[in-house]
Design goal:
It is globular and about 55 Å long. The chain has 3 domains: about 70 residues, SH3 type barrels (Roll), CATH 2.30.30.40; about 60 residues, SH3 Domains (SH3 type barrels); about 130 residues, endopeptidase fold (from Nostoc punctiforme). The mean pLDDT is about 95. Helices cover about 10% and strands about 40% of the residues. Strand 15 and strand 16 form a beta hairpin. The chain is mostly beta strands. The strands form 6 sheets. A 6-stranded antiparallel β-barrel has the order 18-19-20-21-22-23.
């Protein structure tokens, strides 16, 4: 059985209970496979990145095979919410729904140039209106200028384990969301993202948009687990989510925290998608 998220954000938990750890989040319009059911909970596998976990049964909407096929096809050409938060209004009941960055908008139609009307998208036959200035219709070119424009509104978003929205993100949720605006499909966790792309051996060769991975220890040991990920702005700066989304100094040792005068994370790998 397959299902879709018709809520802004759905917590995906490690266990079938309210107090369980949040592993990730499911955004509006995302698809999943239901792989196990309890009376109040469903275990799902997200189609976008393969993450599994438990969701409140009433928060996902089952789909027919026909609905699933149509929505999956529409996602291939969907527009994307590019700002931390946008609001869409349902044409069905006039209610508004907040949509966070990275949300895909299927069957999107922009107003004509200079036309002062909202854009429109459609999900399962229901139309929605949205401010077109909040949306990109094609992936951005990945360069420093566009990266800085994309991340500027995310500065100071607080850290939240398993989060990937404007009210709370973890480090890999931040990288996954931001790079989706550039057409880059990342896996969910830092330990998975480090398997993607090609390695860059020298930090001086790093470019805006490259991923940088870190461990907790300064020891040179390939067996140390990856515990953190950020995005290169240039070879001397990284933007990442640790406590909050922020820009900090980057060098061959790692991330230097000017507030504490110490390194907070130790560089181990650089990857280019």
């Amino acid at each position: 059985m397959v299902a879709i998220a018709l809520h802004s954000i759905i917590p995906v938990r490690a266990e079938a209970r309210e107090g369980a750890e949040q592993n990730t989040q499911m955004l509006f319009g995302e698809l999943c496979e239901i792989i196990e059911e309890h009376p109040r909970w469903k275990r799902i596998r997200l189609e976008s990145d393969g993450q599994e976990g438990w969701v409140d049964a009433k928060m996902v909407t089952p789909m027919t095979d026909k609905e699933y096929a149509a929505h999956k096809k529409a996602l291939q050409t969907a527009a994307t919410v590019a700002f931390p938060m946008a609001y869409a209004m349902s044409e069905n009941n006039g209610q508004t729904i907040p949509l966070t960055a990275g949300t895909r908008l299927t069957n999107y139609r922009s107003p004509m140039t200079n036309e002062a009307r909202p854009a429109r998208f459609e999900v399962l036959g229901v139309g929605f209106r949205i401010d077109p200035s909040m949306v990109i219709t094609a992936p951005l070119e990945l360069n420093q200028d566009n990266l800085l424009k994309a991340v500027r509104f995310f500065i100071n978003v607080p850290y939240l384990w398993g989060g990937k929205n404007a009210l709370g993100m973890d480090c890999s949720g931040f990288t996954q969301t931001i790079l989706s605006l550039f057409g880059k499909a990342l896996l969910r966790n830092a330990s998975e993202q480090v398997t993607q792309g090609i390695p860059i051996k020298d930090l001086t060769k790093a470019q805006a948009g490259d991923l940088v991975f870190f461990t907790k220890s300064p020891m040179t040991n390939d067996q140390l687990p990856i515990t953190h990920v950020g995005i290169v702005i240039d070879p001397e700066r990284v933007i990442h989510c640790s406590g909050r989304v922020k820009v900090e100094k980057l060098d061959s040792t790692g991330i230097f925290n000017a507030e504490t005068g110490e390194y907070s994370h130790y560089l181990t790998q650089i990857r280019r998608l």
